[in-house]
Amino acid sequence: MEDAFEFADDLGPAKIVHVHEPGIGLRGTLVVDNVAIGPSIGGLRMAPDVSTAECFRLARAMTLKNAAAGLPHGGGKSVLYGDPGMPVERKEPLVRAMACALRGCDDYIFGPDMGTDETCMAWVRSEIGRAVGLPTEVGGIPLDELGATGFGLCHAAEVATRDLDFGLDGARVVVQGFGSVGLHAARFLDERGARLVGASDSRGAVVNPAGLDVEALCEAKRSGKSVADHPDGEKRDREALIDVECEIWVPAARPDVIREDNVDRLSTRLIVSGANIPITDGAERILHERGVLNVPDFIANAGGVICAAMEYHGATRSAAFAAIEERIRANTAEVLEQSRRREVLPRKAAVELAVERVRRAMQWRRWSIF
Ligand code: NAD
């Protein structure tokens, strides 16, 4: 049994709840990290093997992301243990049972995550009324279809290039992971004159220094093909994408793709992260020393959660997108300014910005006077 307090610090977690209903086969964990700013928002992950410690780290990441994004929400995360690919007849009752088991935890609002989607959120909402990332029929804003996170990445990139000697127009872009986030990042950057020279997915990569047809690639993905099947470029192994020279590199696939053992292969000026923690700490320091600008993941990829929170508060799509643009631009500018002025890594500046906001909110919580 893990010691629930081994990872506790002065921010949280506020609450760890384990739920178990043997009759239906439900096993789940909720970590509510810090709710000083407001009720927590965070994804419901469905997976067989997430430890409580990992669930806590994911909840803390949401505390920082939501605080940095200026949302009136704290951070939380929940895990439903099981195979996310199980038949819907089994999955639906489990998701509904998980929602019911956590009905009383009204400081946690469910969102979609790995293994869950907008349909799961509709089930949660019908049980307990507290979910974001809903289908449009019940007031949702389809953030992956509209590209909320990719839109935010594009704005982060635009602001970051002000510190560099190139602009988006004509900049060469590489996108690792041409999925919901990567595809839209490529599309929004393309609209601003950038040139996509490389893209990958789990099945391979395609490279063309003269520029890839972004709309054709998006169409190919929508019809279930791989980017590697695209005829107007050179087909490569997916791992070879790291070697493609560019000005902007967008990791949008998995964690830890840039590490000490491969960071020297990367030839870029700016990294704007769609994926969460795509760069190890050691690799991040090496890049910083080399002068590669890196906008931290939870600053650059907050578009999705900003959209979800705006949905929860009844905003329209256009208001949600206006909020993404405004907040991500302001945060990127502030973090890079702090990093430059104090000569610290952008990530350190970003964490401090978020923690400072959480601490300021904590001073008004009732418990602070006891
Ligand atoms: P997705 O499943 O739609 O897309 C992921 C893409 O990465 C797919 O095209 C997949 O084929 C590709 N991929 C997987 N392994 C790869 C590999 N080793 N090399 C190259 N490509 C690979 O997922 P998504 O919603 O686009 O999320 C991508 C990442 O961004 C995840 O890490 C997610 O946690 C993070 N993220 C997503 C959002 C969001 O709004 N969806 C918000 C913040 C962060």
Question: What would you say this structure looks like, in words?
Answer:
- The chain has 12 helices and 12 strands.
- The chain is of the alpha/beta class and 370 residues long.
- The chain folds into 2 domains: 137 residues, Leucine Dehydrogenase, chain A, domain 1 (Rossmann fold), CATH 3.40.50.10860; 178 residues, NAD(P)-binding Rossmann-like Domain (Rossmann fold).
- The strands form 2 sheets. It has a 7-stranded mixed beta sheet, sandwiched between helices. A 5-stranded mixed beta sheet has the order 1-2-4-3-5.
- Strand 3, helix 1 and strand 4 form a beta-alpha-beta unit.
- Helix 5 packs parallel to helix 11 and helix 11 crosses helix 12.
- The relative contact order is 0.12.
- The structure holds nicotinamide-adenine-dinucleotide.
- The site of nicotinamide-adenine-dinucleotide (NAD) has 22 residues, from helix 4, helix 6 and strand 7.
Key attributes of the depicted protein:
alpha/beta, Rossmann fold, 12 helices, 5-stranded mixed β-sheet, 40% helix, binds nicotinamide-adenine-dinucleotide, 2 domains, 370 residues, 12 strands, 7-stranded mixed β-sheet
